[in-house]
Amino acid sequence: MVALVDVNNFYVSCERVFCPALRGQPVVVLSNNDGCVVARSDEAKALHIGMGQPVFEIRALIQEHQVQVFSSNYALYGDMSARVMNTLRPFAPAMEVYSVDESFLDFGGMDCIDLWAHARNIRQTVLQWVGVPVSIGVAPTKVLAKIANRIAKKDKQGEGVRVLAGHWEAELRATDVGDVWGIGGQYATFLSLYGIKTAYDLTQAPDAWVRKHLTVAGLRIQKELQGQPCIDLETDVPNKKQVGTTRTFQCPLTTKAELDEALADFAARCGEKLRRQKNSATTLTAYIETNRMAPREPQYARSFAVAFATPTNSTLALVNAAKCVLSNIYQQGYRYKRAGVLLGGLVHQSAGAQTALFDATDHDKHARLMAALDALNNRYGRNTLRTAAQTTGKGARLTRQNRLSPCYTTRWEDALTVHVGYKSDYCAPDIQV
Fold first, then answer.
1. Beta bridge pairs of residue 173
2. Dihedral sign from CA coordinates of 33, 35, 38, 42
3. How many CA atoms lie within 13 A of 76 on its CB side?
4. Of 54, 76, 201, 342, which alpha carbon lies 20 to 30 A from 22's?
């Protein structure tokens, strides 16, 4: 048996942990630059606020129903995700972290226990230890566990748990084929032309027909719906093929100096990610582009890549490479709305690195310097120590985050203060939308 544990409305739930007054209120979390809705509470969904809907379309709705609006606090969400995953690990012999708010637990060999009671215990433990509610679906396969989890979210009487063990025809008949994990919108439209509208209909289709039209991946999904495990848990984290940092700017940048600082920030952030993963990069690609949503403005987009003689994760080398790339692609006279840095050809440190014959860089010195830089930034906050090429000061923030909550768990100065015997109505800054 396999269980899928999914945090309900994850970003919203994280905000509610540190502001209980948000419970029962409509809450939305916005994307970068506070542009679109990326998370909604159940109360916000009831107001028909759509996922991905631009915030300017719902300003009147926000004011009328006093919807609480937050900027994405990825530092907080990442830390809360790690806490959830660490809480889940002792409950099963194997675990796959599927996304920031989802994980599969392998209940193989645990048939002698009450799976419903075990799943309910998991749910209560996560709520008590981390503070976020989860829904749990238990079934013989991963695809069925997805369906069970979906039902658990909607079934208020099931206490957030649904177990499919033996008969699940009724559940498959009630599930649209487009809602099956791995069946996208195009496949769902195609299948409806042949009368396959529910998950149950898909289980009844001939194997040869499914393989011909949905490939081997579709056949695996069909077998999983029938209760035959075909998709294994990925307990080992796959090696990343690329690391990147991209941003849409709050206001368009026009000068090379501004873009230099932005790309330096992105390259430094990529370097942090590489060192955390114990990887080095062999190539760096940087790009800049204007606002495609402003057709009346002159349009320009360009990217360029450079290769390193020796794989590196040094911030100094990455920043220098990013500045070099910008010199090749920058054109004056344009308003640049988006830019990014991508690192490819990743090599793990355990594999060793082939040095170039004429490479005079002292890589050991760079490694010691980066270790000191990371140690200081981890202790005192990101960008406490940075290169001179990067942006300086809080006023240099390039993205809009007017509704950002404090980083309660990752920044000492933002740690929650508890006042004994003191009642406060404070929840979130009253910022006009």
1. none
2. positive
3. 24
4. 54
313-345 burial, b at 16+ Cβ within 10 Å, e below that, comes to bbbbbbbbbbbebbeebbeeebbbbbbbbbbbe
β-pairing verdict for 37-40 and 2-7: unpaired
Residue type for position 69: V
Q: Residues 221, 214: contact at Cβ < 8 Å? A: yes
In 3D space, the residue among 21, 19, 37, 17 whose CA is nearest the CA of residue 29 turns out to be 37
Q: Is 90 exposed, middle or buried (0-12, 13-18, 19+ CB in 10 A)?
A: exposed
- Helix ranges (DSSP H) in 160-238: 169-173, 185-193, 199-204, 207-225
Indicate the angle between helix axes 207-225 and 185-193, nearest 10 degrees. 120
Q: Which residues pair with 280 in a beta bridge?
A: 347
Which tokens belong to 403? 């509704």
Distance, first Cα to last Cα, the chain: 47
| Residue given tokens 């114990």 in the structure block | 278
Query: Along the chain (433 residues), what's the average pLDDT of each consecutive run of 10 residues?
Result: 91 91 90 83 90 87 89 87 92 88 86 84 93 91 91 80 86 88 86 89 89 89 88 72 83 88 90 88 91 85 89 89 91 90 83 61 80 83 80 56 77 75 52 45
The residue with tokens 């606002």 is 291
* φ, ψ dihedrals at 109, nearest 5°: 80, 5
d(CA 201, CA 92): 33
SS3 248: strand
Residues recorded for the chain: 433
Residue carrying structure tokens 């695809």 = 143
